[in-house]
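Handoff note, outgoing to incoming analyst
You'll be picking up this chain. Sequence as last confirmed:
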Amino acid sequence: MRNPVDVLLVGVGGQGTILASKVLCAAARSAGYDIKMSEIHGMAQRGGSVVTQVRLGEKVHSPLIEEGKADVILAFEQLEALRLLPYLKKGGTIVVNKQTIAPVPVLAGLAEYPDNVLEYISSKVPGSLAIDALDKAVECGNAKAANVVLLGAMARNMPIDREIWEQALENTVPPKFLEVNKKAFAAGYEAE
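Most recent structure output, in case you need it:
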């Protein structure tokens, strides 16, 4: 067991970042890892940043991930991926949702959303995965399952068996949303 694996989940309020981090922690715990998690909600209810730091390993002492040390960034929105990119270590993995959500300064006309974010990330992180999680979630039956599509895309490169992830979903997601979330997880897990 490599010790530890550091994962940043980043997005904006309402995208399901916290649920995804809870499923990740449940899966890691079931796989026998020690886990530490820290959440930061910056005006999340108003579309502000949400960052969750999850560290898993044989023994983890702190939930905080230093800049340049994250093994994985799971980004629910492009600008958030760009903002947290300095936290990714050399050789790390990033999974980015193709979705864009304009922050308040952009909506107010005080700033512009940067062009070519995905191209920039791809140039800095070979092997990065950009996925249209929203479209895949809609195909599965619920746009709100985009977070689980992204989780599935990340999960296939984590040291946790798929069956454990699926059981973590069952233990975490409310029953009435479970079937669509299972489909969403599979769509992400099998995405190219």
